[in-house]
Amino acid sequence: MHPVLQQDLTQLPLILERTRQWSEDFLSSLSERSVCPPMASQQVNNDDRLLAEDGDGALAALEHFWHHYADGISASAGPRYFGFVTGGGTPAALAADWLVSVIDQNSLLSHDTVAAAIELATVEQLKSLLGLPAAFNGSFVSGATMANFTGLAIGRQWLGLQRGIDVAEQGVAALGPIRVLSANPHSSSVKALSMLGIGREALKIVGTLPNAEAIDVDALARCLAEQPDMPTLVLASAGTVNTVAYDNLPQLLALRERYPFWLHVDAAFGGVAACSPEFASLLEGWQQADSITVDAHKWLNVPYDSAIQFTRHLALQMQVFQNHSSYLEAPTLRPDNYLHLTPENSRRFRALPLWMALKAYGRSGMRDMVERNVKLARQLGAELAASEGFRLLAPVNLNVVCFALEGVNGDALAARDGFLERLDQQGVVRCTPTLFDGQAGIRAALVNWMTQEQDITLALNSLRACRQEAG
């Protein structure tokens, strides 16, 4: 064995202990750490771009990383990171994620590990939490991008089946043009269209309801009627990124009876609202969708690299993703045979953090995260609306506050970007830019399990101070 590898094997307990210490130091500093470190701290030294002939061992490498780059790590896991839709990691999920790397299981049905059985159990628990029926099967993928990709790939196969074409075998060219209809598709779905060979140009944006991001079902009906026999995927939103708008799924399902199409519901973070009786009605009808995306590293608060794709069409899923090799088990139709159901052959045990979190906190713990975030988002929105220099661009429907600067003279985009730069320099709260209804907007998305009322106070103080600096 290489002498440095032998050294690290001997020192493994010490390596793990130092890692634990640095992890504890980082987590304990989250409330004071900047949510957006200075750009100078986000750079890599020139020496660290080069590969050395001989290494110094794990302890030295860890020490070097922490000494040189700890200041460049954002507090994105903390309670005041409202950028994008970024959750944190609950203690149970964090512990499980560490174990995932320690035990290093390839989460397939390989008959030599419990990983696939845990994944299936996690999917079943998640369906129970979210009110999804037994008809759905699910599997873990790396994020919403791959969940959307998987759902649309199965939909592409279904469109071919309706016309006697096996797209997985014959290719998408055998099917010909596919129409994709949506009002507010997430950018990851548009990326998926490119990867699937359907093409971004297949997407047609349908009009929305007045003063809302939800799809105008009458406008959708007119689009469908123009070419009633054309293969069609409909991408529904269950929580848009700007205003958490939900498409009217019962109305879409009624349309599906007249114009058969594949209904994919992107519920990356908005689907988790179904765990609360207060908000479950927003998801009415998703039980009859063809495929669904739910992201675990958002509102379910497990570490990054975790989402779930659901579908009612297991056999079609296996047609798309089956993997043939002489050294692997042949495809068999079962809901835990993940080698033949997901884009990846090699899959880390990403179900374990969610299984552990569900075991640790149960239905009530998940519900608390959702309801508390919504309450705090509404408080933030009300305070901003009452503050000089701000205005809401939309009502706070759930957990996202979409707002703008009020009283700006001149270029609104430049004023917005300057404001956000000052906000990042303070490092107290992270918000991200957006455009809403043609206006320069700002988003604050609350999904972190640690966020409490004092965080809203700190965030508001920073937002107001930065607005006052602009005059």
TrEMBL record:
Entry-linked Pfam families: Pyridoxal_deC (PF00282)
One Gene Ontology molecular-function label: pyridoxal phosphate binding
Gene3D superfamilies linked: Aspartate Aminotransferase, domain 1, Type I PLP-dependent aspartate aminotransferase-like (Major domain)
Enzyme class: lyase
Entry annotated with the keyword Lyase: yes
SUPFAM superfamilies: PLP-dependent transferases
Cofactors required: pyridoxal 5'-phosphate
Entries under InterPro entries matching the protein: Aromatic_deC, PyrdxlP-dep_de-COase, PyrdxlP-dep_Trfase, PyrdxlP-dep_Trfase_major, PyrdxlP-dep_Trfase_small
A GO biological-process term: amino acid metabolic process
EC number(s) stated in the UniProt entry for this protein: 4.1.1.86
Residue positions, PTM N6-(pyridoxal phosphate)lysine: 298
Keywords attached to this entry: Decarboxylase, Lyase, Pyridoxal phosphate
Keyword Acetylation: no
Family label: Belongs to the group II decarboxylase family.
The protein's name in its UniProt record: L-2,4-diaminobutyrate decarboxylase
Source organism of the structure: Serratia odorifera
